[in-house]
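Submission sheet (multi-component)
Chains listed below:
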Amino acid sequence: MNGGLFGPGIVMAVVVLAVSIIIGIWGRRLTRNLADYYIAGRSVDALNNGLAMVSLSLSLTTFLGLTALIWFGFYLAIAIYAAFTAAFLVMLVLAAPYLRRHKTFTSMDFIGERFYSPTLRIIAVAVMLVVSTLYMIGNIKGVGLIFELLLGIPGIWGVLIGGMVVTLYVTIGGMYGVTYNQTFQSIVLTFAFIVPLMAILRQLGVAGWWFPPLGYGVAVPDMIRMTPHFFFPFVVHPSWYIAVFLGSAFGIIGLPHFVMRYFTVRDARDARWSTVVCAFLVGLVNTSAYAMGFAGVYYVATRGVQIAPVDADKLVFILTEALTNNWLLAFTVAGALAAALSTIAGLLMIMGTGLVHDLYAVVRPGLSDDRKLTLSIWTMFGVGVVSTLLSIRPPEYILVTIMWAFGIAAASLGVPIVLGIWWKRATREGAAFAMILGFLTSFIPYIIVEVLRMPATIMSPFFYGPLGWVKLMAWSVPLSFAGMVVVSWLTPAPPLAARQQVDAMHGWPDYREERYQGKALPILVVVFSALIMWSVTTLYGVFPK
Amino acid sequence: MRTYRKESWLTLICFLLIMLFGGILSVFFVLGKDLFFGPGPAFAARSHVLGFPTHYFLLLVLGWFGVTAVGAAYALYMDRLEKEIEKGGAA
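Outcome: structure written.
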């Protein structure tokens, strides 16, 4: 942490990187055909998939971004992550088992098939590339940060080494390598986060240190005395919380690297139970991360230590170094590295698959599976190299960039996927309208706020306050939903083959026209969309601006 | 159509519960500020559970155990309902 080489950290990092490559090579031996390479032959069981989803979900932001957000945002950060945990369950009830039954390889493939349009499939690939790149760059940047801060190695080497190792094992091992690596990384990161946290809480004199998620209640009175606003939920307008939920819930369905995990499981039952396993463990780590954020604020307030705002990202490591020993710090490094690698691997997998399976194979039909496999391996390698190079000049804030990725994915991909599963009348034209409108209404604001660095209030006076732009999701997602319903109603009904897919996705062996055709769903969607959009503009009497 | 309706209602109810536990709960804390906190500027939580202000405790527990329990109940019920769905026909 002081700029020199950190021996135990290097040992742990080398172990994690070496094991990842070994698992990748092992995954290669299990891979016999294209389905094995893309989706592990649809053979992954619920526990394995649940664990793989945990490490895919808990990216480096858990170690670097979340605690920093708690440092600045207190209750708001915790509300964001509670919505993120709940989002997995929304995926469970609205999408996961149905997508598994659809027998496609990716979200883009699903959109192309369900909406009988190769063009929409290509548009979905373009959106996937944007959201995956936003998600990826922050994580590769984080690997560089770990190497720089903890190992004393310049960040550029961290980016290059981390980027190349993950590219290597994804390319070699395909989905088998990625899945078993994610399972291994999930176990490492869970223990690497919770064990040092227990030691930190114990050092701070917190009696409930042995159960971090709920063990720090005893220190709450001190915190209220020193930092009373830590627990205030009313520093933002109520619609902010609605926006966070919409962005998380439909964002996770719209992010193709999350959805891809469901195409790897054996059946719909495994899809359901793997989500339950994942939500439980993600909740465990997230509630522990709240405790870590609490410990950071508490440590500074009680010990009179100063941590510069610029160092807020390093809070986990600062606390671990100050209050535990070098080996626990090294263990935390291993966990952070595992978290980053697993997420990057999932993203590389979907980007490589999307480019070959959903773009090249659509433009050049008739490709043999062997040719696709060879192309996929080289494409994933190329995507890995390009992403690594892009990460040399990354965005400033990791977590904020990922929140934008969620928002864009929710409005442009999440909405057509959900309506495509639950409403037979959803048409190609409606989906196209929702995808394009959703993308434009969330990506243009991203450019305005994050690239051009303009204040969010330039778009609407309602987007004021901490993370005020988040309220945009309470407009873009409902707008996409309502737009898709209205345009679908105004255009000819989908062909029978598309309607039959809906019954098949829900597990029906036969087709009945009256199922998933009722008027209640589209009416509810339009009414609730209008109410949510209106909520952003009102209630300022109760909650003064 | 009975099975189809069961599936639709179960999905709607679970979605609403997850939405409440995972996101909308905080809306009530903001709107019910006076109920959960005393008057400003020295706002103070009116009740505590395990040392945490009640609203914060509810967010922690429902945002983790609550949503997971809803998901587990949904998965259990769907395991059974799936058998009815697989019969097809008038189910």
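Remark: Chain B touches chain A through 52 residues (CB under 8 Å).
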